Amino acid sequence: MAEELEEMTVQVITPSGLVYDHHGSFVLAHTLSGDMGILPHMINTISALKIDELKVRRPEDKDGRVDYIAVNGGIIEVNHNLVTIIADSAERERDIDVSRAERAKIRAEREIEQAKAEHKVDDVKRAEVSLHRALNRLNVANHL
């Protein structure tokens, strides 16, 4: 009898292309319905993602290596040991420009204050999303 695979393929895809493509033994994703832990042979599922980090435990590394990816929403699909994340944007921890993310955070905070002062609700919401994305990128970059 063939030994069952204890890993799955994890791919993160954005309009710019493939951001991440590795094997994983465990994936933790933050969906709109709550946190989703994914193990090999999980039932097929699909869910919407929050702006948050994606955590992938690599099977070939017995020391427990974990890859972190900043994902800005999107969807996750699990289908026969293939975990596919489709997002508007995503960055691996090693690819994040921390100074750029810090500038984006400061800019978003400034935009929130200005929009609140001018009572522009839609502008406040847009700036809050920008702030959340910047904070997510900074959080993932801190895992290095």
Automatic annotation (TrEMBL):
Q: Is Membrane found in the keyword set?
A: yes
InterPro entries for the chain: ATP_F1_dsu/esu_C_sf (IPR036794), ATP_synth_F1_dsu/esu (IPR001469), ATP_synth_F1_dsu/esu_N (IPR020546), ATP_synth_F1_esu_C (IPR020547), ATPsynth_dsu/esu_N (IPR036771)
Instruction: Write the record's keywords in alphabetical order, separated by commas.
Output: ATP synthesis, Cell membrane, CF(1), Hydrogen ion transport, Ion transport, Membrane, Transport
| Taxonomic source organism | Lactococcus hircilactis
Could you tell me what this protein is called?
ATP synthase epsilon chain
Q: Which CDD domains match?
A: F1-ATPase_delta
Q: State the similarity comment.
A: Belongs to the ATPase epsilon chain family.
Domain ATP synthase epsilon subunit C-terminal span(s) in chain numbering: 95-141
Q: How does it sit in the membrane?
A: Peripheral membrane protein
Alphabetized NCBIfam families for the sequence: ATP_synt_epsi (TIGR01216), PRK00571.1-3 (NF001846)
What's its job? Produces ATP from ADP in the presence of a proton gradient across the membrane.
Q: Which residues form the ATP synthase F1 complex delta/epsilon subunit N-terminal domain?
A: 8-90
